[in-house]
Amino acid sequence: MGVPKRLTEMQKRFAEYLVFNEGRTTGADAAIAAGYSEKRARVEASELLNPRLSPLVVQYIGALREEKVKKYEVTYDKHVAELGQIREAALKKGAFSAATNAEKNRGMAAGLYIDRKIIKTGKLEEMSEEQLEEKMKKILEDYAPILNAKQVEGEALEVTEASQSSSHTPEESSSDPQKLENHPHHDHKTQTT
């Protein structure tokens, strides 16, 4: 019997269906779509994909795949040129948002933008009390310049720029009644208890 010298129409349809629907079909589905019997579809597909039994079909499938890769291949130059064409078409239609997106994607392809993501793991609930205290100390140390926090025992006082720049002494600004009583400028009549 021997190996045929050229492909039949059914063999071509099988190969084309298989390649152009790659990832969405099986060999049996391709055989059925090409016109092979449903009962023998799996066997036919297996035989058609076997290089010893059907070398021309396997070769044709390889050529189709190569052609598909070349046609849809993404290269830097093709990608940037295509985005440029999309941008120009969008600008002609007045679709400025689409044009901006195309231009941004061109910049991303060229490496002008860096997408930085930080993934942090771990939960506070899973930390021990000591780990939490260490974490809090570290946060306070890291953000001390921003917080400008001072630990003062006792009553918290609100400090404003006006009170800091005034020429009053701390005793004159105090709300402590004992300090006010002993101060020479204190009027005892205005004090309410």
Taking all residues together, what is the mean pLDDT?
77
Tell how many strands the DSSP assignment holds.
0
Corresponding CATH architecture of the domain at 9-72? Orthogonal Bundle
Strand percentage lies at: under 5%
Largest sheet: none
Indicate the CATH class of the domain at 9-72.
Mainly Alpha
What is the helix content?
55-70%
How many helical elements?
10
| CATH-defined fold name of the domain at 9-72 | Arc Repressor Mutant, subunit A
Summary of the model, kept short:
With 193 residues, the chain is mostly helical. 58% of the residues lie in helices and 0% in strands.
Task: Provide structural commentary.
The chain is built from 10 helices and no strands. It has 193 residues and is mostly helical. Among the domains are: 9-72, Arc Repressor Mutant, subunit A, CATH 1.10.10; 76-109. The protein is elongated and about 100 Å long.
Which characteristics define this entry?
193 residues, mainly alpha, Arc Repressor Mutant, subunit A, 10 helices
List the helices and strands and how they pair.
Elements: H1 9-20, H2 27-34, H3 41-48, H4 55-72, H5 76-93, H6 96-109, H7 129-147, H8 161-165, H9 170-173, H10 177-181
